């Protein structure tokens, strides 16, 4: 292999970073709006940064402790790779979110001019996030690959660093965002009868901070983990099948993915014309299609030239298509006909709405699972375990633009909030609402995509574990394996339970604080006095940090405990059990939550009684129940699945070394 | 083996049947009360019978068609055994439920005398159900065993007959009972503001019918299936380990179980003294303990004498203890401290109550799974696959009394309803309420027990499938097996979705009908005119029968489709996936539903605002959401798991014969 191939990840990553800097300037050069807007935006930025810094402090204690363990028990290269992987994830989350929180006020201000201007700013803000995650992820893994000459053990350390951050970002961020949201809604909307994002609501800044730390930084870390995990496992399994060529191939695919994403992002920027009649959804999807087509051309050439046949290209295409289809299915269940049918059940009350929403979420597991099954079997039959890992890489290759579209949503949402709080012209709010409604759909698609890619990545990591732990057969007929699977299937339920209770407990404290401020701060309701926003941010932060430890421990310790009690083969059973049950639970919760959210929005457009009607009240209950489903527990299960796999890959071989 | 051993099942079964006849007379000799009571009881009987007959008609079309398939493709002995197994289940369900519907009015009438008299009638009514199920189940399987000299293939036909009936009884009965219940509550309690069981509510008879067809006949068929399935698989696996001795051993254990159950039932009858200050819960549990102790003594002797060591006894004891512990855990989560904490969240509204209830249900999966895991591993290490099957037999050996206590609940509940409708002295209602509140707890324990035994039975059936399909290794590292597990894990979600939507749809039609009757029947609300009860029964019947087909097909066809697409090893993967995910979903749904139900009841005792408060309203929503969870989807998943296993055991070998 030529040195250029070995360096592909580093070069493409660096290119991506340069492009990100360019995008950042494009965003920052925009007018951030008037003083009031700047003040609000700053409050969100300060809150979000404060949360992330507190979160990272705790994270780094664990990361450093763990890296010492890795260093002493295994190798210091691995320990350094671990810290490196975690740090790049932290940096990308921090930087991406920082720009997102600066893009929101600029989007609002641009919306005073035109829809297209606002769209560009919001999209480029999201693109900074997407490109940062993909570029830094690939760059870092590329550096490790180059320096260690493709040492898979050291690379697994890097992947585990990514997983640790993802866990904290998703669980902590998920608890923060929903505690703030539920707290703001329960008192503000329901009790005090003031609208969403009203500046008099003390929890409103916390709510906006939550959108950023949960939906932007959390989602970014989640996909960073999937992206790194899939490339790592494809490289490890590729080395077994095609030696050096196979090891480097996934890096090449990902490198061209970065370039394709850049082209897609530029396309959106050029295509958006200066007028108000554009269709934001079309523009965004257009960019994704361009990027994917570019990538596919590269994939077919690379596959033939490097691996000598189109086999790899077929598998990668399959992964990409399945990713897009799962996104589409998610959109169908959370934004199309089923939602209208669901909204109708709200006319009979909240109980029928809740029952039917759960039925919808459960039903929605079927097609994605069948799609993933097809991708798995076809990939396996074409290229063995390497095929499965490559399908995952294919799904994630153009992450730069996929995540851009996903992160665009919260920016548009925040922009609307700022427009509301700053009292801008209602026309502005209309424009941001239009952007936001597209954002809700892209967010739903993004969640489906995150679950789909997590599943394929988990499958690839499962196969990698089998290899590194030297397990030849995982026989379900062995009672230890079956019991492992049984316990593994239980973990996502226990994990979700902890996450949901964390939201409930933190929201409760938030409710009490918001009520207190309404009562004790004179003139607050008349808009004459300002609420204490910072206090609410602090409550959400403390709650999230306190409550994220237990579920995190569960994810990290389970494979270790199973190893000591039942052995390394049973660990594989546990991973399988967690994956199969976790995927269903994650899809169920995400889609039920998404459908309730959109059912409420549909009713708010005036259907089935509209705002203030009985069915609207029922739909608000559905939405509130769905919040921790779709934004805390559901997405966190993705991490649980991947983290348990990577923890097993890294730690079990070390334990085997010492105890067997 | 002596002939007496071969005949043990037949003899004990016959003994049980004789005892059941004796019990039946004890129930029927009681005073059924005044004309009004008799009329209400008759209406419930007619409705319940009408439903079962319609259900059985559809069932028999499928049973006969399927038996023809078995006869032509395999053997006519198997076809006959299949019909025989189905018919005995139908008979026990029909007979047991018939006596239960006669016991209800007699319980109400006895309650005019004393609590103890009422307790005896209700318990003996339940005991008829319990003993019928256990006796007929064992008798029939014993006959097949004796006539075919322990031919496991023919026995599997019998077990599958039991499974088919269980499916229809659980799914159909579950849809019926909740459509009626939700329909009655939504219009009656919420809209018309009349109390539960008010005779003016047109759906009230349907509601009481539902208790019988769902909780009595459905639960009976469910446990009949587990009972037969566990004895069958233990016999099949025992033959492999200990040849003839091993094959007959499970029958001996079950035979002494029948005798122990009889002793336990007699104990309760003798122990209940004629006064009002008895503690019904103590009496009932006392009977179970006596029965289990008797059984354990027999088990230890049999184990040593027949199999030459105490190994089997230890395994059976473990199964029994785990069964009791799972019942206890279920009681803890659905009737103790966690419920009070849950009820408190209702003070913040229905959304927190719903979120926390789901978190509770998810958390409650952990300990039962760990207990089952311990039982599985210890049993396997002591006696291999035979050990797992024996643990399941141990859990179910004293089914006669376990199910008696379970079926007692709906009888007490119905008695309360009749007392209310017939306008008896409030003192009577107080007594039946006392019986009913114990019934709620025993029902919760029964559900936990049903899931626990279904899981162990499913594990035993899984092992049996491996044997009969000649699968040596079920390797999760084979992508077909992993995909099988993934699809298998999805099925309980899809199945639950179908069941819950069926309830929603049927309940909707019921709501419209009840509203119509309130509006169109003059004088109904003043108690001057009678509602059209039969119409509501008919709606629930039609809804249940129409909607039970699709989920049933899903259970039967899935293993067959997987076999054709992915092969016989992948079928094993599918069974494992369905089992591990299904168990979690079943426990989650059952316990969340049970906890919401009891949280509502707790608030109705005056806590957290009591009846009519905001928290009460929230708790009614929780209860309504929980109804299809705990009484339709949750329990039906048990059947899905077992039926898929038995279908695989019976059909896949036939398909292998033809296609491989």
Automatic annotation (TrEMBL), chains A, B:
An annotated Gene Ontology molecular function: magnesium ion binding
Activity control: Requires K(+) for maximal activity.
EC id: 7.2.3.1
Signal peptide: none
UniProtKB keywords: Cell membrane, Ion transport, Magnesium, Membrane, Potassium, Sodium, Sodium transport, Translocase, Transmembrane, Transmembrane helix, Transport
One BP annotation, GO: sodium ion transport
Principal EC category: translocase
Transmembrane segments: 6-28, 49-72, 78-100, 121-147, 247-268, 289-307, 313-333, 353-376, 382-405, 449-469, 481-500, 548-566, 572-592, 639-659
Enzymatic reactions: Na(+)(in) + diphosphate + H2O = Na(+)(out) + 2 phosphate + H(+)
InterPro entries: PPase-energised_H-pump
Pfam families per UniProt: H_PPase
Protein topology in the membrane: Multi-pass membrane protein
GO cellular component: a single term: endomembrane system
Subcellular compartments: Cell membrane; Endomembrane system
Major localization class: membrane
Sites annotated Determinant of potassium dependence: 443
Cofactor(s) it depends on: Mg(2+)
Its job: Sodium pump that utilizes the energy of pyrophosphate hydrolysis as the driving force for Na(+) movement across the membrane.
Family in the record: Belongs to the H(+)-translocating pyrophosphatase (TC 3.A.10) family. K(+)-stimulated subfamily.
Oligomer and partners: Homodimer.
The name this protein goes by in its record: Putative K(+)-stimulated pyrophosphate-energized sodium pump
Organism annotation: Oceanotoga teriensis
Lineage of origin: Bacteria, Thermotogati, Thermotogota, Thermotogae, Petrotogales
């Amino acid at each position: 292999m030529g040195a250029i191939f070995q360096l592909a990840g580093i070069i493409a990553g660096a290119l991506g970073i340069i492009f990100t800097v360019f995008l950042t300037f494009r965003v920052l050069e925009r007018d951030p709006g008037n003083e009031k807007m700047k003040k609000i935006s700053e409050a969100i930025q300060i809150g979000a940064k404060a949360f992330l810094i507190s979160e990272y402090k705790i994270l780094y204690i664990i990361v450093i402790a763990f890296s010492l363990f890795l260093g002493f028990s295994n190798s210091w290269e691995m320990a350094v790779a671990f810290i490196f992987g975690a740090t790049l994830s932290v940096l990308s989350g921090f930087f991406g979110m920082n720009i997102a929180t600066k893009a929101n006020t600029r989007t609002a201000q641009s919306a005073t001019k035109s829809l297209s201007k606002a769209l560009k700013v919001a999209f480029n803000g999201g693109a900074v996030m997407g490109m940062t995650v993909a570029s830094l992820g690939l760059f870092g893994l590329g550096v490790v690959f180059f320096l260690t000459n493709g040492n898979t053990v050291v690379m697994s350390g890097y992947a585990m660093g990514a997983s640790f951050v993802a866990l904290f970002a998703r669980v902590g961020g998920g608890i923060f965002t929903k505690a703030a949201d539920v707290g703001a809604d329960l008192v503000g909307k329901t009790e005090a009868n003031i609208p969403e994002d009203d500046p008099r609501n003390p929890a409103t800044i916390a709510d906006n901070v939550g959108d950023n730390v949960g939906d932007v930084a959390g989602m970014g870390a989640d996909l960073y983990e999937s992206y790194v995990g899939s490339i790592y496992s494809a490289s490890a399994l590729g080395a077994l099948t095609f030696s050096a060529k196979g090891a480097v191939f996934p890096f090449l695919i990902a490198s061209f993915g970065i370039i394709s994403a850049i082209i897609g992002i530029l396309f959106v920027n050029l295509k958006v014309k200066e007028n108000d009649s554009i269709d934001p959804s079309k523009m965004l999807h257009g960019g994704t299609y361009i990027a994917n087509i570019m990538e596919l051309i590269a994939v077919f050439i690379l596959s033939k030239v490097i691996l000598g046949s189109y086999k790899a290209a077929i598998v990668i295409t399959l992964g990409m298509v399945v990713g897009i289809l799962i996104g589409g299915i998610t959109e169908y269940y959370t934004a199309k006909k089923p939602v209208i049918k669901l909204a109708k059940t709200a006319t009979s009350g909240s109980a029928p709405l809740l029952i039917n929403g759960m039925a919808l979420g459960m039903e929605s597991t079927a097609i994605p699972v069948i799609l993933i099954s097809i991708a798995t079997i076809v990939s396996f039959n074409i290229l063995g375990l390497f095929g499965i890992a490559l399908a995952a890489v294919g799904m994630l290759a153009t992450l730069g633009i996929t995540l851009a579209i996903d992160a665009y949503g919260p920016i548009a949402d925040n922009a609307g909030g700022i427009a509301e709080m700053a009292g801008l012209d209602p026309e502005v709010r209309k424009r941001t609402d239009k952007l936001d409604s597209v954002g809700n759909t892209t967010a739903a698609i993004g969640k489906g995509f995150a679950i789909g890619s997590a599943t394929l990545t988990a499958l690839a990591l499962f196969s990698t574990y089998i290899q590194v732990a030297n397990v030849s057969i995982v026989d379900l007929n062995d009672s230890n394996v079956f019991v492992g699977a049984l316990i593994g299937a239980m973990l996502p339920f226990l994990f979700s339970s902890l996450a949901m209770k964390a939201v409930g407990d933190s929201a409760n404290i938030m409710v009490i604080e918001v009520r207190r401020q309404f009562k004790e701060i004179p003139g607050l309701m008349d808009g004459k006095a300002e609420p204490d926003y910072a206090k609410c941010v602090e409550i959400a932060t403390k709650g999230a940090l306190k409550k994220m430890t237990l579920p995190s421990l569960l994810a990290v310790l389970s494979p270790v405990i199973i190893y000591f009690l039942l052995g390394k083969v049973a660990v594989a059973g546990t991973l399988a059990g967690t994956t199969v049950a976790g995927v269903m639970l994650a899809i169920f919760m995400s889609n039920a939550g998404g459908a309730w959210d959109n059912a409420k929005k549909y009713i708010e457009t005036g259907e089935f009684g509209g705002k203030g009607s009985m069915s609207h009240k029922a739909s608000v209950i559905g939405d509130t129940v769905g919040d921790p489903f779709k934004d805390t527990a559901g997405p966190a299960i993705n991490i649980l699945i991947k983290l348990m796999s990577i923890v097993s890959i890294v730690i079990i071989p070390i334990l085997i070394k010492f105890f067997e």
